Amino acid sequence: MKIGILGTGMISEQFVSAAQEISEIECVAVFNRSQEKADLFKAKYHLAQAFADYEQLLDQQLIDTVYVGLPNSLHYAYAKQAAEHGLNIIIEKPFVSNIQEFDELIRITEERQVKVVEVTRVLSLPNYQVIGEHLSEIGKISLIFLSYCQYSRKYNALLEGGTPNVFSSDFSGGALMDLGVYNIHFIIGLFGIWDKLSYIAKKRDNEVDLSGILLMEYPDFIVSASQSKNSFCDNQIIIQGEKGTISVPGIPSKLDHVYLSDKDQKTLISVEQSRNNFYYALSDILHVFHDDQLYQARLAHSRLVMLTLDQARASAGIVFKADRSDR
């Protein structure tokens, strides 16, 4: 797999660092609208070429896949353009801005006979599989609590009057799309679609959410998922059952330690995850690309996540520029 990297931010750096540990992946080129930034990234990671013109990168026939590590609102347009050039796509979470973009992008990829896979950094973790394997041991589930709260390095700029992309409705930002998406991947992957949903959000200027609590009702249990970009928290995951509890001190995209507890004892059940989460994600994506059954299942999962994000935003009155017909 020969990959062109779209974007030179921290997430793209993490992607390339993990990809360079996998022999089946070669990061060949990078794109940034600033040639200077593209050149610096190329030099740092020893890539072959750097581009400030996206169309030029696509036309060079250097790559067979792009990684879209751009702001949320740009995912659809750049992925669409890559698909129209016959390239596969690895797309950063969240997949796109809304379900309409999702369905249209899938239509285009099917028409062009290429594939697109979202980087979740949850489903591929070895300890995510461990959690699934032990769910039956805690009996009938009644409550689940997750938190992913992290004071954003861009929040101070917002307080000073700026509008960083991650806090902009023009760029499909906010706590739910940036952090809450991990919580949603975690729950949807284990339990499928919910029956009812509501999102209570603290919004900036009545636009995107700075923080919020997502409630998902299932037939037998309730999920409470909190996400925040303007506060600190000892993040945790707690799955409560009639016979016991599965708990994780940390966030859904890491899952370093998993505990199984009952009334008598608390046992560490996690396995050692010797690699970082991006490594596991990329190794998983290779399998998904080469197995059509896995690919279709992953698309179905990502679509449920996208539907959940859309419904949650509608519940909280969060509207993006991408949602408007006059964008």
From TrEMBL:
Organism name: bioreactor metagenome
Entry EC number(s): 1.1.1.371
Residues covered by the Gfo/Idh/MocA-like oxidoreductase N-terminal domain: 1-116
Molecular-function annotations in GO: nucleotide binding; scyllo-inositol dehydrogenase (NADP+) activity
Span of domain GFO/IDH/MocA-like oxidoreductase: 137-246
InterPro entries registered for this protein in UniProt: Gfo/Idh/MocA-like_OxRdtase_N, GFO_IDH_MocA-like_dom, NAD(P)-bd_dom_sf
PANTHER family reported in the protein's UniProt record: PTHR43054, SCYLLO-INOSITOL 2-DEHYDROGENASE (NADP(+)) IOLU (PTHR43054:SF1)
Gene symbol of the encoding locus: iolU_16
Keyword flag Oxidoreductase: yes
Keyword match Oxidoreductase: yes
Record's keyword terms, sorted: Oxidoreductase
Name of this protein: Scyllo-inositol 2-dehydrogenase (NADP(+)) IolU
